[in-house]
Design brief:
- The chain has about 250 residues and is an alpha/beta fold.
- The protein is about 50% helix and about 15% strand.
- It has helices spanning about 30-45, 70, 75-80, 85-90, 110-115, 145-150, 155-160, 170-175, 185-200, 200-215, 220-230, 235-250, and strands at about 1-5, 5-10, 15-20, 50-55, 100, 105, 120, 125-130, 165, 180.
- Helix 4 runs parallel beside helix 5 (about 110-115).
- It is globular and about 50 Å long.
Amino acid sequence: MSGTGTVQVTRRENATWIGVHRPEKRNALDLAASRALRQAFEEVQAAGPTVLVLHSTTPGIFVSGTDVGDLAKRGVEEALDPVNVRLFEQLASFRWPTVAAIDGPAFGGGLELALACDLRVGSPAARFALPEPSLGIMAGAGGNHRVSNLAGLAVARRLIYLGDVIEAEAALAGGLLDRLTPAAELDATVDAVVASIARRSWRALELSKLALRLGQRDTTVFDLVAQGLLYESDDAATRMNAFIERRRAK
C-alpha cells in the first residue's frame, strides 16, 4: 500500500484500489484531497493496464460531498480554475475501465466522483443525492450532465430540483448502481467484476471506452460560468455558512 494521508493506493491482480481516507470529514473532498487523487490517477495510469477501483478506507462511508468549508471560500476565479472538474474528467477519461465501490452516502461531489466511474457497485448503505442547490450552487463538476446521461432526466430532476435521496434499491433499478451486494461481500463482488473485465483485451477495452465517450453530452462549459456566478452570490454565502454552523452545533 502507498499514497498520501488522504489517499491510499493498493495494487491487486488486474486492479488498483484507490482509497479516500478522510474519516473525520466523512471523506468530504477538499482541495488537498482532490489534488492527491489526481496525482494517484496519473501514477496508476502511467503504470499500465489496470482496472481502477475507487473506494473508501472507512466502512459505511463513501464520499459525503465536497467540503463545504472549502466551497464557502470559492469565487469566480476558483470556478474558472475548477479542480474538481479536472479531477472527475481525469477519472472519466482513465484509459481502462473504472469501478466505484460504494458503501455509504455518495452526496454532491461524492456522487459526481462515482458518476465519473464506468461502473458502480454498492452495498445497501449506498445513497445518492445532489444537495448543491440547497447551498446556493449547482452540481457543476459533471453532476448535471453525467446523472442525466446515465439515469435520465427524470432522475436528474428529482435529485436536483427536489433534493431527493435515492436509496440503494432504487439506484439499482434506475441505473445509478450496476451491482448491489451485502456490505460484507462488497470487495468480493468488485473482485468478480474486475475478473470479468480482465478477461477481455486491454486495448479493445480502451478503444471501446473512447467510442462510448463520443456519444455523451457534456455541459461543462456552461457549468463553469454558472458556478462562478453562484459562488459570488450572497445567497450561496448565507446558505453555506448556515450549513457550517449547523454542523458545528452537532
